[in-house]
Design goal:
The complex is a heterotrimer. Chain B is an alpha/beta fold. Chain B has 13 helices and 13 strands. Chain C is built from 5 helices and 5 strands, in the order H-H-E-E-H-E-E-E-H-H. The chains are: A mainly alpha, B alpha/beta, C alpha+beta.
Chain lengths: ~700, ~350, ~250
């Protein structure tokens, strides 16, 4: 697959160049923003300093009104310290007497302050009685001064110094978000490259590579193809024409041979023998003629699913970092149910609908057509997002979220079906890599951008953005090919039957994989990432944007490590070890919160959780095929995997429920620790259970 | 006086003419039976003010013990007969007389079936009124008025930081001994030294004021303490004005008062509970019981969250220890005599534009 | 030659538009929230002055409803900052008890105010109406019971004006840096694309000579050399076989 790698090298180079340009542009924007901030924030802060100074002055005058001498005041520095605590941008405060000598001071004195205090113009202020203030740049500070004047009797001057660098601090806070934007831009670039140019290039180059392979194998059958009018298209046309020429030559020669053989007799026939032999070897070695139509899969159309899927998943992922906070805001007391559980309710319901809906929506989308199913799902989700944005209270919110869930399940299943329909045995893995890739990139970009949006334009408007994104996905879905393709090899899918579910539930091997590995992994994913992180972050006074950054860390870990661990665990065949290690790492993640409650530790938690999940996720489902061959033989692949996916997704729904119950008992930190401990326990139990000889890696399984 | 003590007075707190009033008059007012220790104080005024402000109709029947415990059985009998909705008790003696200690409740002598709200009890646990402040467990709850010891120490330190603290206390008063212990405990955490001197006992083992001034002077001259702390001590209260404070002033030792009564003897500063606020808080507890129907056993016994920091400006001037500037924001500055100067100061405190920074 | 180049450049433009747009958005909102918090904290300084006075009055046993000096105090504090349009004190039902405007006493404040006060975790709260903003403080008594709320109404003009100015400047800066990218990015991209296009050209050139019988030099140095080589040899082999057949046919007569 030299050509695929070649294309990715080009992508990365392009992305690198684009990123450099973006960084330069961001630097320019930041530079100008800094100028604006300086221009506008400084006068505003000076105003505030004047108000604060007036308030301190009132206190000083109150003290002197009790007969305390102005130069004998006690604890003025203490008052200054209190002011600094409330106004971190103030760096210095001082009171001078009417000669400009400093009586009380605290903070970092700017260079040149003493000279400034003795300046005649400044000293003249002390004689003013009105509400006046004066400000000037002294050294690294802006000094705001107000007179202290007791009903006409000048006492001195109060100075407040504003650190000129405070604007830098304000902008530094934006920087974190800008970094997030950069990361998202990178992923976005790769996704767009793939969408705008890549789909065509990749399929073109893929076609080229296949052609090369085919020809090397001696297959010179002509395919009837419409070639795009671009570089690759022209290239393929050249090859097509070369093949056509060959075929024409072959046809001609074959015809001539036929003719001669038919007309020839005896010796002439004998003379033609070498030619006939040559023709026979030729026919053995090469194949000519026209290719059977449709034997090949349509890679170009397969690639086209990526963009709409990405847009749609992005719409949902945008809401991850702030949905619980939004629910919290719309909370209505439901009798006998703790508010913690109620907050988790919409997420729980969402996951439940997706879990239960999927098996049935699969066959439904087959009946109505993948494209149409996706359209219906996306439209429902768009309505759902719009409704969520305008929700009146918890009750209708739950309705709207359920609509989103149903739409999500429809699009997900139909897109999956779309890939299934267009891939054969040999390129199915590649097809699913594409499918998973689109989802993963969406999980990187969605929560972080969503958090930033929520913080700045509010929850409702952010759901509006989701609705918009979902609308965009409708447009993209609409451009998908209307012709449905079905490979004959694919049997119609069906939902698992109750009898099969029961039988598998009783099966020890199956349940070891599902109950001890797959479900706990999902419980900790939804419980921690979708429920605990967004709520805990906000509860300790941080922002939704921070929650989004956390979720991005998780997603980035997945993107980086899943491909790696998938190929490694495939290569070594000790998949169960990967699952064990992954589960145990996930299980240790939450225990970090026992050390400290800082949000930095939470980064560690999410990092470990991402690492653990990434290690185990690819190996998990492969293990089912590996170790449940007996069951697959009895119930069929579809049923076993159907039940497996169903239970896994029920784990998704259980996550927020378990997390919320734990929060009630032990608070947020306790819930992190407890849910991790649960997964750690499952991880250890899984390790022990898979230790026996029965779990030795089986031979090749497909 | 005795006759006056027997005078009944009934206060029916009614509302002004509002919509609520009409409604309230239809409902029967809550009947409260209140027993005071030495006549009506600001606590009762705060108690009534709270109900008036919250527009809760109450009918309060006041009885005064007038420091005479022999009247208690009569009150108990009347409570049983009139069956009020709530009993209000002022001070440790009255409260113990009505409810008894938790380990010796006598259903014959004590009230158990009617909720009791006490007020102005200095140490409810020490007096065995409740076992646990957070969870009274009896049909009794209430309000205590002494600021937590650590809060007092911190208030002292915010006036002037110190390394060493002197205490004068009555060794026979359990209340004081406990507080001294608490101060020692706080000193270990906050890092200062404590010099506690017990007052002398005479031949009859009765506490005496003899030698008190010398002890105070020694605290300053020999032990080099920075503050004199006056614990909530009844005997100390009786001798402070005459011998303790003048001795302290003579050696320039500032005194910190733990109660309003001690503050009145002339201490420089003190953290005290305003009786009016205590009364309001007591009424708030009563509201929980009467209106919100919370059983008293589940209502924690608490004190105010914010105390009044009082400063005598004349003493501050004499000791050359002006209050720190931030204190002018929240302290109650007492300027003595003439009488109207106090009023002026209070008005100023209420109206003057105060400074920026923090509250206590 | 152009279509792929154009597509890559469009990607660069879309991404830069997104990044620059997000950065502008972030800066603008950070600016707006900073400026409004500065203005609000300025207003709250005055609010806290009032709070201190109220606390002092409550401490000496005055009833919250009966602080006689309150209206005068509010009027004086209001005058100390031109930004403040009015100060109200209201109770938990939202009814105004004291105000700098007599007419407002007894009126109800908007629900948004009481909601904001109830939602806030600290004693400070605030809401932003269309033409005026409100900064508030919950007033608590000596046992932490909220007795009322102080609301300082101030003009939104100051914040809006500042936000407008900054918004315009940030927008301009963003547009210029986006235009800058639009000029620079294609140039920078062409360097990378050139190489890609060279490869494709080499491929095309090779493809155009796929059927050359001569051993024309193969364009070397492209990433597709092996593929092209394979193609050529496949074709050549096929052609050779056909040639062989031709020759035998001819030989066979």
């Amino acid at each position: 697959m030299l050509e695929k790698n070649y294309l990715w090298r080009i992508y990365w180079r392009l992305a690198g160049v684009i990123m450099v340009c973006v960084v330069v542009a961001l630097a320019v924007v930041s530079f100008f923003s800094h100028r604006v901030f300086d221009q506008e924030l400084v006068p505003e802060t000076e105003q505030k300093a004047a108000t604060v100074a007036a308030s301190v002055r009132a206190l000083v005058l109150k003290a002197t009104s009790y007969g305390i001498d102005f130069s004998q005041l006690y604890g003025v520095e203490q008052t200054f310290a209190e002011v600094f605590e409330e106004n971190p941008e103030f760096a210095y405060m001082a009171v001078t007497n009417t000669d400009g000598n400093v009586l009380y001071t605290r903070g970092t004195e700017p260079i040149g302050a003493r000279t400034y205090f003795r300046n005649a113009v400044v000293l003249q202020m002390a004689h003013e009685t009105g509400e006046i203030s004066n400000s000037a740049r002294v050294g690294q500070q802006y000094i705001v001064s107000v007179p202290i004047n007791d009903n006409g009797k000048p006492l001195g001057i109060l100075h407040v110094g504003i650190d000129a660098a405070f604007v830098d601090h304000v902008l530094l806070e934006v920087l974190l978000d800008v970094v997030v934007v950069l990361v998202v831009s990178l992923f976005f670039t790769l996704e767009l490259l793939n969408f705008m140019a890549g789909a065509r290039l990749a399929s073109g180059l893929g076609e080229f590579a296949r052609q090369v392979d085919r020809m090397r194998a001696g297959d010179f059958t002509a395919t009837v193809r419409i070639r795009a009018n671009d570089e690759i298209g022209r290239l393929l046309r050249r090859i097509d024409s070369a093949i056509d020429h060959l075929n024409v030559r072959y046809e001609f020669l074959a015809g001539e041979l036929q003719d001669k053989l038919r007309s020839a007799t005896g010796a002439r026939r004998e003379a033609l023998r070498p030619a006939q032999q040559a023709f026979e070897t030729l026919s053995k070695r090469f194949r000519f003629g026209s290719a059977p139509e449709g034997s090949d899969t349509d890679e170009m159309n397969l690639n086209r699913i990526r963009a709409p899927l990405f847009a749609f998943i992005l719409a949902e992922e945008l809401t991850r970092s702030f949905l619980p906070s939004y629910v919290n805001q719309l909370l209505v007391a439901i009798p006998y149910i703790s508010p913690q559980v109620v907050i988790g309710l919409p997420i729980m319901l969402f996951m439940l609908i997706v879990a239960l809906g999927q098996p049935y929506l699969g066959s439904w989308s087959e009946r109505v057509g993948r494209r149409r199913a996706m359209l219906v799902g996306a439209i429902m989700a768009t309505v759902g997002f719009t409704g969520t944005a305008l929700a009146y209270n918890l009750y209708d919110l739950i309705l709207w979220r359920s609509l989103c869930a149903l739409g999500y399940a429809m699009v997900f299943v139909a897109a999956q079906g779309y890939v299934l329909d267009r891939t054969g045995q040999q390129n199915r893995a590649q097809g699913f890599a594409l499918f998973i890739g689109a989802i993963m990139v969406a999980t990187v970009c969605g929560p972080s951008i969503g958090g930033i949006l929520a913080d700045n334009i509010g929850f409702r408007a952010s759901f509006g953005v989701s609705a918009l994104m979902s609308l965009v996905s409708i447009l993209a879905i609409n451009r998908l090919p209307t012709v449905e393709v079905r490979l004959a090899t694919v049997k119609p899918t069906r939902g698992p039957r109750m009898r099969e579910i029961m039988a598998l539930l009783m099966n020890r091997r199956f349940m070891t994989l599902t109950g001890l590995a797959a479900m706990p992994a999902k419980v900790i994913l939804t419980g921690v990432c979708f429920y605990l992180v967004p709520l805990y972050i906000v509860s300790i006074g941080n922002t939704s944007a921070m929650a989004g950054r956390m979720l991005m860390v998780y997603a980035v870990m997945m993107v980086l490590i899943v491909p790696l661990s998938a190929s490694l665990s495939d290569a070594t065949m000790r998949r169960d070890r990967y699952v064990s290690v992954g589960l145990i790492i996930s299980g240790l993640s939450g225990l970090l919160l026992l050390l400290s409650e800082s949000f930095l530790v939470l980064f560690g938690v999410v990092f470990l959780l991402g690492l653990g999940q990434a290690l185990s996720i690819a190996a998990q489902s492969a293990l089912v095929a590996e170790h449940c061959q007996e069951e697959i033989r009895i119930y069929g692949n579809d049923a076993v995997y159907g039940v497996y996916r169903l239970l896994e997704r029920l784990g998704n729904a259980l996550g927020p429920l378990i997390a919320s119950l734990l929060v009630i008992v032990w608070g947020y930190q306790g819930a992190f620790v407890a849910i991790s401990a649960l997964v750690l326990f499952c991880g250890i139990a899984f390790t022990v259970a898979t230790h026996g000889s029965e779990w030795q890696p089986a031979a090749v399984t497909q | 006086m005795i006759r006056r003590a027997f005078l009944w007075f009934t206060v029916v707190a009614m509302l002004a003419v509002t919509d609520h009033a009409a409604q309230a008059q239809l409902t029967r007012p809550y009947r409260i039976y209140a027993i005071t220790f030495r006549g009506k104080t600001d606590v009762e005024r705060g108690f009534e003010d709270y109900f008036a402000a919250r527009r809760i109709p109450v009918q309060i029947t006041y009885r005064d013990l007038n420091r005479d415990n022999s009247r208690m059985p009569g009150f108990i009998e009347e409570i049983r007969r009139t069956k009020p909705d709530l009993v209000y008790t002022w001070g440790t003696s009255v409260t113990l007389g009505v409810v008894g200690t938790y380990d010796q409740v006598d259903p014959q002598q004590n009230i158990t079936d009617i909720p009791v709200v006490f007020t102005l009890v200095a140490a409810p646990v020490l007096a065995k009124i409740v076992r646990d402040l957070k969870n009274p467990g009896r049909n009794v709850t209430g309000v205590f008025h002494v600021a937590p010891t650590e809060t007092q120490i911190r208030a002292m330190a915010s006036y002037r930081p110190f390394k060493s603290l002197g205490i004068l206390y009555t060794p026979t008063e359990q209340n004081s001994v406990v507080v001294v212990e608490e101060v020692r405990e706080v000193s270990r955490r906050l890092g200062f030294s404590v010099v506690a001197k017990p007052l002398r006992l005479d031949a009859n083992k009765k506490v005496t004021a003899d030698g008190a001034p010398e002890m105070v002077r020694e605290l300053k001259t020999q032990n080099n303490v920075d503050w004199l702390y006056l614990p909530p001590d009844s005997f100390l209260g009786t001798i402070a004005q005459k011998s303790v404070i003048p001795a302290a002033m003579s050696v320039g030792l500032p005194a910190f008062a733990s109660t309003e009564q001690l503050m009145e003897t002339g201490a420089l500063t003190g953290l005290v509970s305003r009786y009016h606020s205590i009364g309001q808080f007591t009424a708030y507890k009563a509201e929980q019981i009467l209106v919100n129907k919370v059983p008293p056993s589940k209502i924690p016994v608490e004190t105010l969250t914010r105390f009044a920091l009082q400063v005598r400006m004349d003493v501050a001037e004499a000791l050359k220890l002006p209050p720190p500037l931030p204190m002018f924001n929240y302290a109650e500055l007492i300027v003595p005599k003439p009488e109207d100067r106090i009023q002026a100061a209070l008005a100023a405190a209420a109206a003057a534009p105060a400074g920026a920074a923090a509250k206590q | 030659m152009g279509t792929i180049r154009v597509r890559f450049i469009i990607v660069a433009l879309v991404v830069s538009f997104f990044a620059v747009g997000m950065a502008a958005f972030l800066n603008y909102f950070k600016y707006k929230s900073t400026i409004s918090s500065i203005v609000r904290s300025r207003v709250l300084v005055i609010g806290r002055n009032i709070e201190n006075s109220v606390q002092a009055s409550l401490s000496v046993g005055m009833q919250f409803m009966e602080i006689g000096t309150m209206n005068a105090l509010l009027a004086r504090e209001r005058a100390s900052d031109r930004l403040i349009q009015g100060i109200d004190v209201f109770d938990h039902t939202g009814q105004v008890i004291y105000s700098t405007e007599r007419a407002r006493v007894g009126e109800k404040v908007p629900n948004a105010w009481t909601d904001a006060a109830a939602r806030s975790k600290s004693t400070e709260w605030g809401t932003e109406g269309t033409d005026e903003y409100v900064a508030g403080i919950s007033l608590k008594n000596n046992f932490d019971l909220t007795v009322g709320y102080l609301a300082l109404r101030y003009s939104s003009e100051e914040v809006e004006r500042a936000a407008k100015v900054a918004g315009k400047e940030i927008l301009l800066a963003s547009i210029f840096s986006f235009l800058g990218i639009a000029l620079v990015a294609p140039l920078a991209l062409i360097v990378v694309i050139r190489r890609f296009e060279r490869d494709l050209r080499a491929l095309e050139a090779a493809a155009s000579r796929l059927e050359d019988r001569t051993d024309a030099p193969m364009p070397a140095g492209s990433a597709f050399d092996t593929a092209i080589g394979s193609l050529r040899s496949s074709l050549r082999e096929a052609n050779a076989s056909l040639d062989d057949l031709r020759a035998r046919l001819d030989a066979g007569g």
